[in-house]
């Protein structure tokens, strides 16, 4: 198309020379990271594991999920949560059993055992440096493209996030019964 798409030049100007009604910048890496830093909301996110990168990050500007993950554009994913209180994960095995059952029901083929998942969750919690927090984890069909079928996915994706403090420990949050 020689730099012209739908009557727009690569500069964003309409071919007629007029600016579009809503100018949209094109970012390079540094301007993208600056924009991410500037727009961060109030959520306190302390650590994130991503199987896509194969590790944990603690800089919120680096916490992202690829747009071509079927978790994002198809909703082909499952999630669960658990609590971290005084450095202990509560009922994590019950949550992992449910998580793995949900993944099987959603036909998400993956490589992780229950022990693998527990280890990744524990390591992500430790990397957060928090003793009391919430954890949420997602498993998706994986990164691959925008087709309907997950056969294009390279492998399942897993994300673990440690965020905030448990609501039972914040103002008006009620109580947490740890005997369950």
From TrEMBL:
* A single GO BP: carboxylic acid biosynthetic process
GO MF annotation terms:
catalytic activity
The protein's matches in InterPro entries, at most eight in alphabetical order, are given as: Aminotrans_IV, Aminotransferase-like, BCAT-like_N, Class-IV_PLP-Dep_Aminotrnsfr
- Signal sequence, renumbered to the chain: none
Q: What Gene3D superfamilies does the record tag this protein with?
A: 3.30.470.10
In the record, the note on similarity to other proteins reads: Belongs to the class-IV pyridoxal-phosphate-dependent aminotransferase family.
The protein's matches in Pfam families, at most eight in alphabetical order, are given as: Aminotran_4
Q: What is this protein called?
A: Aminotransferase class IV
Top-level division of the source organism's lineage:
Eukaryota
